[in-house]
Design brief:
CATH superfamily of the largest domain: Aldehyde Dehydrogenase, Chain A, domain 1
CATH class of the largest domain: Alpha Beta
Strand order of the largest sheet: 12-13-14-11-10-16-17
Radius of gyration: 23 Å
Number of strands: 20
CATH topology of the largest domain: Aldehyde Dehydrogenase, Chain A, domain 1
Helix content: 25-40%
Structural class: alpha/beta
Strand content: 15-25%
Number of domains: 2
Largest sheet: 7 strands, mixed
Length: 476
């Protein structure tokens, strides 16, 4: 668990020593080199119980503060992140694997501060529903209590802030459980935040599956926020039933992108590439399957291949790299198996697909797979890595049908030179967010959530704040 201390402007080494246990702990290795980054504490369910009790005790005082007072603390938290930004980015790069540059580690740390400031700035006031001769009714939003936040390994700091910032803003206290793959990043983030936040309102407990399960079902936790797989989300739903716990679930994606026949392949190629390969493809709302009209199919494939060839991949601390390794061996094997199965089915490997397994690290090259059937596992299953299947279509109806065929619907995109036509197609896609001529561009002002089995509940913006509160009507 975390304690308060002053580490403004700390070095990477000081930051690491602040979160490592004095003795013991579990080694965390750099997925790019195999070197030991540091040791993560192995917290237990008993540690979780203590954190929840502390958060429960601190909540009434925190909840009694005004929105302006809580927002002031969020802005101080953003200041603390910015003062320690480089140390946080280096730790994140070494533990998660993502490069410092590009839309990666420094970008993620900067986004944490920006999201805190944006969340602090939203106005949320009681709403007058009616006020007439029959009486007056007001809608208020009260704190829920203790929020349990269970985060992923792909964007551990940023998604952690997506969870904790609105929860704290609305007067809740928070207990976070980071992924077992990236605990140091979240522990360090929480440690930095706790240099300026009131004691007891924010905790991080690093542990195994037993700790996560205990947090999800704990009777003293009023809401759970989870980002991760659909399978784990379903388990959380089941464990929440006995306490009728509130949930916000951002679950698996497999986002579709549709390129209309009037699009300019060269103009959209870089946007398509980063839509798919941001964080080396390890992003819930990344472009995971691309549907391109037959008239511009080959031109689009060629333009994408040219962009992919220019993107350097390697160790994250090398300032030249913008693509990194898969974060863990398990995810590497998923990507490798799916690409190999596509090869064996007769699909065309345009670029990549040939990892050098003699080198250290879980590096899989940026891979484009063309001439692949929509039913191929590389298309139908979420690969969550640097391999993009490109499917040819003949009619818009066919493309929309293929895009909507899966049981998930987190995000999607439409690419066209005609925005009105793109909007018409976007309206037919079953997804929580549909972008036009871009993909995955989340914004703190714009609510975000999934359709179908990609989860429920909203994050971001004023609507996201409301999902971290108990609505109460006062009628008189």
């Amino acid at each position: 668990m975390t304690t308060q201390s002053d580490i403004q402007g700390t070095t990477f080494e000081d930051l690491l020593s602040a979160v490592e246990p004095a003795v013991g702990g579990r080694e965390i290795k750099d997925p790019a080199t195999g070197e030991v980054v540091g040791r993560a504490p192995e917290h237990t369910v008993a540690d979780l119980e203590a954190a929840i009790a502390s958060a429960r005790a601190a909540q009434p005082g925190w909840g009694a503060l005004s929105h302006a007072e809580r927002s002031g603390f969020l802005n101080k938290a953003a200041d603390a992140i910015e003062a320690n930004a480089e140390a946080l980015a280096v730790l994140l790069s070494r533990e998660q694997g993502k490069p410092l540059n590009g839309p990666n580690a420094r970008f993620e740390v900067g986004a944490c501060a920006a999201w805190l400031r944006a969340t602090a700035a939203f106005e949320i006031e009681p709403e007058v529903l009616f006020d007439d001769e029959g009486g007056r009714a007001e809608l208020h939003h009260r704190p829920l209590g203790v929020v349990g936040a269970i985060g992923p390994w792909n964007w551990p700091m940023m998604i952690g802030v997506w969870q904790l910032a609105p929860a704290l803003r609305m007067g809740n206290t928070v207990v976070m459980k980071p992924s077992e793959y990236t605990p140091l990043s979240v522990l360090a983030l929480v440690h930095v935040l706790n240099t300026v936040l009131p004691e007891g309102i924010l905790h991080a407990v690093s542990g195994g599956r037993d700790v996560g399960e205990a947090l999800a079902g704990h009777p003293e936790v009023d809401k759970v926020m989870f980002t991760g797989s659909t399978a784990t989300g379903k388990a959380i739903i089941r464990s929440s039933a006995d306490t009728v716990k509130r949930l916000t679930l951002e679950l698996g994606g497999n986002d579709a992108g549709i390129v209309l026949p009037d699009a300019d392949p060269k103009a959209i190629a870089e946007g398509l590439f980063w839509g798919a390969f941001i964080n080396t493809g390890q992003t819930c709302a990344a472009l995971k399957r691309l549907y391109v009209h037959e008239d511009i199919y080959e031109e689009t494939v060629t333009a994408l291949a040219a962009v992919a060839a220019a993107m350097p991949m390697g160790v994250g601390l090398d300032e030249n790299n913008v693509l990194g390794p898969l974060q863990n061996r398990s995810q590497y094997q998923i990507v490798a198996n799916l690409v190999q199965a596509a090869k064996e089915s007769g699909a065309r490997i345009v670029t990549g697909g040939n990892p050098d397994e003699s080198q250290p690290g879980f590096f899989y090259p940026a891979t484009l797979v063309a001439d692949v059937d929509n039913e191929n596992p590389l298309v139908a299953e979420e690969q969550f890595g640097p391999a993009l299947p490109i499917v040819k279509y003949s009619t818009i109806d066919e493309a929309v049908e293929m895009a909507n065929a899966l049981e998930v619907g987190l995000g999607a995109s439409v690419w066209s030179s005609d925005k009105e036509k793109a909007r018409e197609v976007a309206a037919r896609i079953e997804a929580g967010t549909v972008w036009i001529n871009k993909h995955g561009a989340v914004d703190p002002r714009m609510p975000f959530g999934g359709a179908k089995q990609s989860g429920y509940g909203l994050e971001f913006g004023v609507e996201g704040l409301k999902h971290l509160a108990q609505p109460q009507i006062i009628n008189y």
